[in-house]
Amino acid sequence: xxxxxxxxxxxxxxxxxxxxxxxxxxxxxxxxxxxxxxxxxxxxxxxxxxxxxxxxxxxxxxxxxxxxxxxxxxxxxxxxxxxxxxxxxxxxxxxxxxxxxxxxxxxxxxxxxxxxxxxxxxxxxxxxxxxxxxxxxxxxxxxxxxxxxxxxxxxxxxxxxxxxxxxxxxxxxxxxxxxxxxxxxxxxxxxxxxxxxxxxxxxxxxxxxxxxxxxxxxxxxxxxxxxxxxxxxxxxxxxxxxxxxxxxxxxxxxxxxxxxxxxxxxxxxxxxxxxxxxxxxxxxxxxxxxxxxxxxxxxxxxxxxxxxxxxxxxxxxxxxxxxxxxxxxxxxxxxxxxxxxxxxxxxxxxxxxxxxxxxxxxxxxxxxxxxxxxxxxxxxxxxxxxxxxxxxxxxxxxxxxxxxxxxxxxxxxxxxxxxxxxxxxxxxxxxxxxxxxxxxxxxxxxxxxxxxxxxxxxxxxxxxxxxxxxxxxxxxxxxxxxxxxxxxxxxxxxxxx
Length: 497
Description:
Number of strands: 11
CATH class of the domain at 3-264 and 466-496: Alpha Beta
Strand content: 5-15%
Shape: globular
Strand order of the largest sheet: 1-3-2-4-6-5-10-11-9-7-8
CATH topology of the domain at 3-264 and 466-496: Amidase signature (AS) enzymes
Radius of gyration: 21 Å
Distance between the termini: 12 Å
Structural class: alpha/beta
Oligomer: single chain
Helix content: 25-40%
């Protein structure tokens, strides 16, 4: 199957309803493409071909019944193949979180976001690769090996939702679920040239999402376009009694047929265009901002003065929450056990051998920040500065409707380029962390290419629960450009080998 034959979500659903294709044939073609490309991309950890074909067969039976009796109400995403990031549980399907400590974990429950997709008729073709417990910016921290960028196999796809982004970019599936704790939907979307929607904290239930940073984790969508993301969002969003942080707000149904940015106030924060940013990234983002001006938007220079503190604040709060969340993986409650003569030796052996280096690093950072004598000086202070960052966004949204900025300071870097310097890797998230700390939504989408042929992307951030405004603004740009329609070259030659 050629990449161009994997259609958008809208086109796929239309073709299924019209009977131009069957879900079974479409799913089989996606699985064949997965098998052909996964050797070079390593986007999937656990393909689920038998489950997917059963789901597709059931979808076709529902379509057949509907054609006999059009009064039957069909699930809205019936027969659509999707991939799931391997930190979201699906009952009966292995969930590793990219870690050896959950190597053979098969959850008996399903994440609410996945459950709602299944209820909407989605076909799940497999679980995608991720940095271990979603801790990383490149998918190199996966215990099962890195994912490769479809645009250049020597480069990273971003992280931690790198497997999902690569699967969509390579047109293995029309869309995928990811998660975003510090940029893990938007940054891989940017590196892989697809559209990535980070939802507002509380918009989508976190039940069944294996926790990393509980006050930061969000579930998001990776797709070919803003229109595709808009079609999926209503079916994962909404209140869930199993997650006390999920908000009881109307589930958005986003109308894009008349999307316009005429009069839209687009804020451009000066703190996001800093020394060290790759010139082609800045040029691409500024050109996209100018395109918004040409389409009738009002461009307003703004300031988010506490942006510089986002990186240290995040790397105190997120590791502290990770330290608490990952305490359960001790060989007794969860995970395989490494034996020791005494209980503490068993703990040390299990966690020492089964956790990767980055997870250990963050657990130690977090444990230190929470320890007696340091809690107020580090974790407590970080929470106070987090409040200032949140107030920056609230003040800005009194002046503008959306904020436009780069997603990352560079395009996709080479595998291993930052392996010797954790700080260099952390700096890749410098433009995405503030949205997570403030809890606001964001969307990343391609706006060009650099001289190496790697995607350049921009992000828009909006007020809490205004995903609709972001999707409309991104869609308006994508109606005027074709960057999101570009497909990586060379992969189909591998498909045919």
